[in-house]
Predict the structure.
Amino acid sequence: MVWYVGCIPGPGVNPSNVVGTSAGDVTSRGIADMTAEHTQERQEFAFQAEIKQLLHLLSHSLYQSRDIALRELISNASDALDKMRFVALTDESQREAGPLEIVIEPRAAENQLVIRDSGVGMTRDELVTNLGTIAHSGSGEFLKNLSSESKDKADLSLIGQFGVGFYSAFMIADKVEVRTRSYREEKGWEWESEGTGRFTVEPVEGPLPRGAEIVLHLKDDAKDFATPERIKEIVKRYSSFVPHPIKLGPGDEVINDQKPIWVEPKRQVTDEQYQRFYQHLSHHGDEKPLWHLHVSVDSPIQFHAVLFCPPTNLERFGFPRLEHGVSLCAKRVLVQNDCRELLPDYLRFLFGLVDSEDLPLNVSRETLQDNSVIRRIRASLLKSVFDRLDQLAKDQPEVFQTFVDQFGVLIKEGAIVDPINRERLSKLIRFASSHNTDATLNVSLDDYLARAPEGQKRIYFLGGPDLAAIKKNPNLEIFRKRNLEVLYLIEPIDEFVMNALGTHAGKLLTSIDSDDLELPEAAADAESDKPKEADEKKAEAGFARVLELFRQAIGDRVREVRESHRLTDSPCCLVNSDGGFTMQMQRILKMANKDVPEMSRILEVNPASPLIRRLCNLTANTDHDAFIKQCGLQLWSNALILEGVTPDAEELVGRIQGFMDEAADKRSPLILS
Ligand SMILES: Nc1ncnc2c1ncn2[C@@H]1O[C@H](COP(=O)(O)OP(=O)(O)OP(=O)(O)O)[C@@H](O)[C@H]1O
């Protein structure tokens, strides 16, 4: 018995909407015009250039990944059946669609494998455009990603995600024939290619059933694909969840499962079933999902949903921005296979399926946005995702850490762009911190507050290009001395997150390089703890004069030169004036070519530092003024370099050369003859 009337196509980079007709309608028009007068005869076409390259690669691929060829063809057949199911339900004239099924028929004697479906089929123009001449955006991306790996290591199993799965047929076949008839036509067509540079298309004589039949002429070393055992094994492994019967031809034996696990009670679904369903939805071969979520809600809106998180974030590896991977079904009938309205953009990495009894079948892409049922499903689903992540953080910290490492940046994106859910998201984001010795992103804002001493009114952070640079920042000295934790912003997005949040649990998020750094109460004591000697020295040896000379030398490249109360060892540091961008934020904006107003910053000088004390002594003799000024300039440059900013190289090198000459001269004065 067939349990449902619906369908679940796997999402790809370019999934087509099943509402309406296939992509070929639009894209093939130009070709149709060019060739209209020839459509009754056999015609030869050249494959589009990237497809040619792809075919070359696939036909020389290694054995281990060849199963995916059958998987991809089954997936295409299933998509075509999904579309036909939808057409039958919405188009009066197609009501009598007949059985929707896939038949896989091994013909061992002829060394052939046939995959047949009763789906929508293809018109001549669709055949020409879909299987050969249209440069699917995916093929270039796929090749690019493969070319970065050595050919024998290349992960061909990802092919389905790039919208070029059909061509994987040439991994096991040296000739492929496609016979097809569209539900919109009486006439059938045959496509044929040996996978080299060209393919032919010609009309089929006589009647042809609706749908498509793919005949693979198997390569000599792929004969095993024409055995029932091999077919059953592959179907069990990759295609159990294809929601249409897959029969082993020429008989009637159904060899797949077709169970709609999302309507089953959770405890009756095994891990293996979830895993296989994930593989079906994601096209991710043998991969296990990192976590999954299964929800069944009865009121106020009835819906079932299963969502999966993949173990890796392909965006991090230079893949293009992920497409949404959640399919929407109404009463088990697929409405849309990349439904953006179900989850916010920052959760685009989740795969899954949502099925509701409360949605009409004719809901279209345009009306989805204003649909109140969808809005309520979305709110409920989002809450479930947040709950699942909170639970994961609590119960499975290692899994949660993997999630943060892979997808944390997208959760941070959410904290920036989704003000309504910002509070929930702020509990899920993680930072590096001075509490750790390495750059692990595992400190939440709540962890930070739980450790903070009583009375601390702010959450302190510091950004920089990387952990090593941040650790060298002199602004940290007082925090180290006082044992106050500082969050390290090592991901470029972190600064934007802090800006968006502003506060957490009523505590102001404060960059420690801001000029109004307010430390907890003990700070005042620490100040008064400073050795009196330093104050005296400062007064005696002209600290005020040193500041004055620094001001003269640096000029308006800083807003102010003043005494520091935050440094313990370093001679000076740069801080931001009130309300300005942090240094890290300025760097990021500059990298993005945004116009950033040059911030005039404040140079703070530490009177207790040995170098400054020496300079104070030197002020007694005005002969040293020029040297003190040079030192001021160099200290300012040093502070910039520590923050990852390169000051004027020529000026810097000239000055260092001067210092070196002077130092060398002291060691070995030049005797001028
Ligand atoms: N059995 C079929 N019936 C009808 N159309 C098909 C069939 N197989 C392929 N097509 C058409 O050819 C197109 C290209 O197929 P191909 O497998 O290369 O990419 P895709 O199906 O778009 O992406 P993916 O492989 O990720 O599912 C499909 O989008 C579909 O329009």
